[in-house]
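S.,

Sequence below, as promised.
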Amino acid sequence: MMGAQQDILHVPLAMVESGYGEESNSFNGQEKKKKKMTSEQLKFLERSFQEEIKLNPDRKMKLNPDRKMKLSKELGLQPRQIAVWFQNRKARWKNKQLEHLYESLRQEFDIVSREKELLQEELIQLKSMIREDSSCKKKQTWEKACS
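The prediction came back faster than expected:
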């Protein structure tokens, strides 16, 4: 069994050095390096995202390919970077919307829950009053019968 494990773990050095099995960013032998976005680029993308929300508040926000290329050229970034940024930002925006919705629903639930507790307490008091009233009437009826 030990020999089988050694065969599985053995990887030829040539495969490791060549980067075998790793994803490559090369296209026709040219390396495309992913650039880190500057704060100005991020601000520009954020403004663009906010405009998109205002333009399409109820529709799905899908980045138009023409717009993606335009932003890519304006900012000097790869179109894929723009698309991924928008996708991530949309996910964060949706999460924030869900957090706000959850918070408002939780507050409404707390109010309704408290109202329910108050009504239950009132119901207990009313039942107690009915029992007392009923026992008083029985007592009065008994006293009238005895007299």
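Helices lie at 2-9, 13-18, 39-55, 65-75, 79-146.

Coffee later?
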